[in-house]
Design brief:
Blueprint lengths: L2 H15 L7 H11 L17 H14 L8 H12 L6 H14 L1 H14 L5 H4 L3 E7 L2 E7 L8 H9 L32 E5 L2 E7 L9 E5 L9 H13 L4 E3 L16 E5 L4 H4 L2 E5 L8 E5 L5 E6 L2 H16 L11 E2 L2 E2 L1 E10 L2 E10 L27 H4 L2 E4 L2 H15 L5 H4 L2 H10 L8 H20 L6 H12 L2
Helix pairs in contact: 1-2, 1-3, 5-6, 9-11
C-alpha cells in the first residue's frame, strides 16, 4: 500500500465519520501532505480497502519515520505525530461548541452522544486502546463489582522515558486539566492535545469546561473542570457545583474526589469533578437504615449497605440537600472518636473529608457522602483506611472516586502477572521477580480450589482478584460492616 493510498484512506475516514465534508477533501489532504513533507501526490484506487484508523495512522507514521520526517519511533513520538495529523480534520472549538449547544436545545442526551462519538472519531479517545482494557465482574455482599485492568494509557518505553527526562521543563499548561490544553501540540513530557475540544459550560455562575477522559474507565467518562487553575476543596460550594451540573445533564452522575492526600485523587491542584453515563454498584446499593436529622425532616437520609461508609441524602429540593450535606461535612471535619480510631486531626494535620457523588433518579435528587479519613499509623504508613499491605500485590494505589463507587482500576502490570500466575498454578516452574509477591496469596488460592486446570484457571484468578478488591474497599471504610462498626457509625449519626 503506497503512502498516497494511506493518505486517501485517512481522508475517506474523515468523510465517513462526518469529521469533514466533501468540500473539505482537497484542503484536508493538502494539510496532511504538508505535515508529511510530501510535495507530490497521485490519485490511486482505494476501492474496497479497509478503513481502519489505527492501521492507517501506523502505516503513515512508518513511512514518515523511514523518510526522516518523524525523528523517533517511540510511543510518545508516534502519539504526538498522529495527533498532529488528525487535527487537520477537527473543527475549531467555536464550531464544536456551536454544534453541541444546538443539539442540547433539542435534547441534552443528543448533545453528549454526539460529543462522545466525536471525541472518539477524532482519536482523542483511542478506541483501539480502550478495546485492550481487561474487564470482568464479581459478586459480593454489596452487589456486583466491576473490575478493570486499564491498558488504554500507554506505558512509555525506555527511549520515551529518557526523552521526557531530558526535555526542557515547562509550566505551560499548568496541569493536564487546564483550559490551555485545548489544541496544545504536546511534548515528550506532556500529551498531545491538538484534537482535544472542550465544551464551555457555566457551573455556579463561573466558566467551566466539559470534556471526556481519553482513558475512559467507564461509559462516557467525563471530566468537568474549573476554568481557573485552582485547588480542589470539598465545601458547600462543591455540592452546589455538583447539582448545578446534574441539573443541566440529568442523565449523568457527577462526583468529586476527596481533597486530601491518600484518600484523594491524583490531581488535587485543579478543581474538577468526574461523571458519566454509567450505573455503579454503589448507586444500586440500598440503604440499610434511614434516619432523620432534626431540622431536615423533608430530606431522606440513610446509611448505604456498602463497604465504605456512605450517607445517602434524597429529596426534591437540591438547596435543602446541599444545606444538610454542608451540616454533615462540618460535623465530620471536626469529629473525633478515639474508640473507633477516628481523629479529626493530629499534630495540626486535618484527616476527615468526604467523597461526594450527585445524581438524579426520576424526580428525586440524590447525594452520596462517603466519609473518608487519611490518618496513617506505624503499621499502616500509607494510610489506615487505605489498601492494607497484604493486598498490595494486587492494589496499593489510592482508593479514589471511581473505586469508591465500585469499579476497580487495577494496575496495568497485572495483565502480564495474571499470565504468570496462571502458568504457575498449572505448571509451577520458575518464579519470576514479579510473581514472587503473589506466592503466599497463590497458595491460598490453591488451597481453596482443589481442581485447577486450563479451562478454569483464568476464571479462578479473576474471581479471587475481584474478591481482593472487595477487601480493599472494606479497608477504606472508616466504619466496618460489623456490629461494632455500625455502632460507631451510629455514634456519628447521633451528633447530627
Amino acid at each position: 500500500m503506497s503512502i498516497n493510498q494511506e493518505v486517501l484512506k485517512l481522508v475517506k475516514y474523515g468523510k465517513e465519520t462526518g469529521l469533514i465534508d466533501a468540500l473539505d477533501e482537497i484542503y484536508v489532504r493538502n494539510s496532511i501532505l504538508d505535515q508529511l513533507k510530501l510535495d507530490d501526490f497521485q490519485e490511486e484506487d482505494i476501492e474496497g480497502e479497509d478503513i481502519c484508523l489505527p492501521a492507517i495512522l501506523d502505516a503513515i507514521m512508518d513511512d514518515a519515520y523511514a523518510r526522516g520526517v518523524m525523528e523517533s519511533d517511540d510511543i510518545v513520538s508516534r502519539d504526538l505525530f498522529d495527533t498532529r495529523l488528525m487535527n487537520a480534520m477537527v473543527d475549531r472549538p467555536a464550531l464544536v461548541n456551536q454544534k453541541f449547544w444546538d443539539l442540547y436545545k433539542e435534547n441534552p442526551i443528543l448533545a453528549t452522544d454526539w460529543f462522545y462519538k466525536f471525541s472518539q472519531d477524532t482519536n482523542y479517545i483511542r478506541r483501539d486502546r480502550l478495546a485492550k482494557d481487561r474487564k470482568w465482574t464479581v459478586e459480593s455482599p454489596y452487589g456486583i463489582i466491576d473490575i478493570t485492568i486499564n491498558l488504554s494509557k500507554p506505558e512509555k518505553d525506555p527511549k520515551a522515558i529518557a526523552a521526557a527526562k531530558n526535555a526542557p521543563q515547562s509550566s505551560y499548561p499548568k496541569c493536564q486539566l487546564c483550559m490551555e490544553n485545548e489544541g496544545y501540540a504536546g511534548r515528550m513530557n506532556h500529551p498531545a492535545r491538538q484534537t482535544h475540544r472542550i465544551i464551555q459550560i457555566e457551573v455556579d455562575q463561573n466558566k467551566w469546561g466539559f470534556q471526556y477522559s481519553p482513558y475512559g474507565y467507564y461509559n462516557e467518562h467525563c471530566i468537568v473542570f474549573n476554568g481557573q487553575h485552582t485547588p480542589m476543596k470539598i465545601e458547600k460550594k462543591a455540592f452546589v457545583k455538583l447539582f448545578d451540573f446534574v441539573k443541566q445533564f440529568n442523565h449523568y452522575f457527577l462526583g468529586s474526589n476527596a481533597d486530601l492526600p491518600i484518600v484523594g485523587g491524583s490531581i488535587l491542584s485543579h478543581d474538577h469533578f468526574q461523571g458519566g453515563h454509567y450505573t455503579f454498584a454503589m448507586e444500586k446499593a440500598e440503604m440499610e437504615k434511614t434516619f432523620t436529622v432534626p431540622g431536615f425532616e423533608d430530606i431522606t437520609a440513610g446509611i448505604v449497605k456498602w463497604p465504605l461508609s456512605v450517607i445517602r441524602l434524597q429529596g426534591k429540593d437540591t438547596n435543602r440537600i446541599i444545606e444538610l450535606a454542608d451540616h454533615i461535612l462540618g460535623k465530620w471535619r471536626a469529629y473525633t472518636d478515639e474508640e473507633a480510631y477516628i481523629f479529626a486531626q493530629t499534630n495540626g494535620e486535618a484527616h476527615n473529608t468526604i467523597t461526594p457523588i450527585a445524581r438524579k433518579k426520576g424526580d428525586v435528587y440524590e447525594l452520596d457522602l462517603t466519609l473518608r479519613n487519611n490518618i496513617t499509623t506505624e503499621e499502616c504508613p500509607l494510610g489506615l483506611y487505605h489498601p492494607h499491605a497484604q493486598y498490595h500485590h494486587i492494589k496499593k494505589e489510592n482508593i479514589g472516586l471511581i473505586e469508591v463507587m465500585g469499579l476497580a482500576v487495577l494496575p496495568a502490570r497485572l495483565k502480564n502477572e495474571m499470565e504468570e500466575m496462571a502458568t504457575y498454578l498449572l505448571h509451577k516452574g520458575d518464579v519470576t521477580p514479579s510473581l514472587e509477591q503473589h506466592l503466599d496469596w497463590l497458595k491460598e488460592v490453591e488451597d481453596k480450589y482443589p481442581t485447577i486446570n486450563e479451562e478454569n484457571v483464568v476464571g479462578i484468578l479473576e474471581e479471587e482478584i475481584g474478591q481482593v478488591f472487595v477487601k480493599v474497599l472494606e479497608d477504606a471504610g472508616v466504619y466496618k460492616c460489623t456490629e461494632e462498626g455500625r455502632k460507631a457509625f451510629d455514634r456519628f449519626i447521633s451528633i447530627l
